[in-house]
Amino acid sequence: MPCHFDYENALRTSGATRIAGIDEAGRGPLAGPVVVAGVILPPTFCHSTLNDSKQVPARFREGIYEELTRHSEIRWSISIVEPLEIDRINILRATHLGMRRVAEILQPDHVLIDGLPVAPFPWPQTALVKGDSISLSIAAASILAKVTRDRLMLDWHEKYPAYDFARHKGYPTRLHLAKLREYGPCEIHRRSFAPVAECWFDFS
Question: Which residue of 10, 74, 76, 146 has the fewest CB atoms within a 10 Å radius of its CB?
């Protein structure tokens, strides 16, 4: 079933006008930030290929990202929570922090969140499991978050080519784990994550 506006339309019927979809990219990786995006789409918005970022090939995600961010009627915000903050407060709280940050920028009447409810959260919310595959607003947020994070990891690949971040984007693939065991963590590895902690080297 393609993404739709059913949840957004129901909220508009109840009086909400600024409905933000929120999603994240990067909760599972061992390296790099978690990126959260929020998007408010206009009621007349339509798109033939917009879907959960995991279902859209990378070559198309980039094009959709440009369409969304350049659209004059779309409001959007992105929050980047760095590894040091993730290590300090844990990945779940870091993700929720990013969600609150984008909502503070967008000031929505209601938020559609991919996954489980966020508590505490200062705005009315509806949590939708697999929301990025059913809500157009959440799908748009998933594209922005995924493309932003992938671009950041490509930048880090230039600084630390030995880890092959361009290939695995920091996720715990067999290749990444092998590189981590060989070289130890770099500055963007999440030291609170067990596979990283187990490979810690003292480079001093």
Answer: 10
